[in-house]
Design goal:
The protein has 2 domains: about 280 residues, 3-Layer(aba) Sandwich (Rossmann fold), CATH 3.40.50; about 250 residues, no CATH class. About 65% of the residues lie in helices and about 10% in strands. The longest helix is centred in the middle third of the chain and has 81 residues.
Length: about 575
Amino acid sequence: MSNLINQTLLALRAQAEEIVKDLHELAIRAGNEELAQTVSSLRNRLHEPFMFVIVGEVKSGKSSFINALLDTGREITKVAPQPMTDTIQQIIYGEEEEVVSINPFLKKILLPADILKEIAIVDTPGTNTIIEHHQEITESFIPASDLIVFVFEAKNPYRHSAWQFFDYIHADWGKKIIFVLQQKDLMPPEDLAITRQGVADYAVKKGMDAPVIFAVSAKEEQEGKREESGFEPVRSYIREHITGGKAPVLKLQNHTEACRNINGRITQGLEIRKAQYHADIEFRADIHQTLEAQEGKSNKEVDMLVENLIAGYDRITRSKEEELTHGLSFFALLRRSFASVFSKKSSPKEWLENLAASLESDLNNELRAKLNAGVVNLADSIQQMAKMIDLKIRSSKTILRDDHDLFSDIAEKRNNVLRELQEQFASFVNRAENFTDQSLFPDKSPVSPTVATGSGLAVIGIVLAAVAQGMVFDITGGILTTIGLLFAGISSRVKRKKILDGYKTEIDKGRRQLETDVSSNLKAYIRNLKLRIEGNFEKFDLLLEREEEQIDKLEARHQAVTERLDALSQALRQA
């Protein structure tokens, strides 16, 4: 039967070793070096004996307590008026006594003491003096500990640093803790009873159920006063709850719970990380929707601008057509022909030149005014959109903070990318070339730098006006050139129908060109500007893409570890 139990235990331990190996890999992939180191230490201590970790303040009597508990008849851990334990001392069983220095902060003491055949004892520096090496203790021993023995000086068990360390052990790791009030011989029994109850009440207040408290005197134990020293209840507790064959299973259960604790932290960290990722996806979608909506709004404003331009164009060209039709009548030409005998200005040619000049002047004045009004509205809406995006970037939701205990590196990286995005976008909207660059224009004819004075958003109106007016003047200029050629062909034998038909043809062609070119070029400018704004988010988009991939991989590994830990916990409860 014993052999069967051992075989079962070995199989469960092998499972635990594989799980902690995968948990270590998960911690590495999570990018948290400190957590990975903690899991590595847990993995390395899986095969060690049941571990007592003795903690407490300097001069609380930890070393004396350990010496008395070991019952070797001599001093194993140094006791002196000044603090002596400046390193962690792991005391384990060995056939020969030996001290092995592992590193400047850790040494192992091997002793042929019977109590060490089933347990190991770890003596730590005082809780009020270990700040410099606190990480060494917590990473190496607290997660892998099986029982925390909290030693207080019986006369004063309420010191702040000790209870701060208690909070870390109990709240963060949920470790089994017992309390020892050392140096009880220095207090009257009635005062000791009050102190003992006070410690129990304080521990309960901090969330502990049924705290176990022992009052001992190492001095009396070492003087042979066994009945008075209080050590027998401690040894009885150890025999009843730990030794006698129970320690290996308890060790494995504690080890599994430590893994579950770490895995639970990864669960919580992943949930926060996922929440940040989803918030960033929403933020990015909001930016994209804002740009899409702005493009739609701006395109409608372009349509209204073009509609107004066409209305003005139609009114002026119709007026000139009526004037041309009337002026090309037989009697009107006859009058001008007679009048031209006395004055060149009254000739049909001069009249047609004046008509062309009037058409040019009226079109330019009418279209310029309409362009200016429409461009102001268009530029204003683009500026408001840019300011809105800038505000959205600056007010993006931060859930995963850079002091997160698991994913601080990821949070810091995100914050750096977001900060760079803020600075880049602010720079983008303040640089005139971002709104006048050749690539923004379908015909590759950017606004002249001398025209686009100013910077950033302030120059958008100038750019749009120059773009649109340039197109309008090109179109009207083309119309007038063609009409001018038609007019130049007039001779004494006037071809009235040919001139009127030619005028209508050129006016219709110009109308279509005006409508098409102004609309397509301004809309292309708006679309290209939107794409350029989106380009500011390239690094942020890449971050989100990688984050999605990493979260998916972490979740898959984490789920596998969780399922295996649950199965191992259930098997251990039945062992």
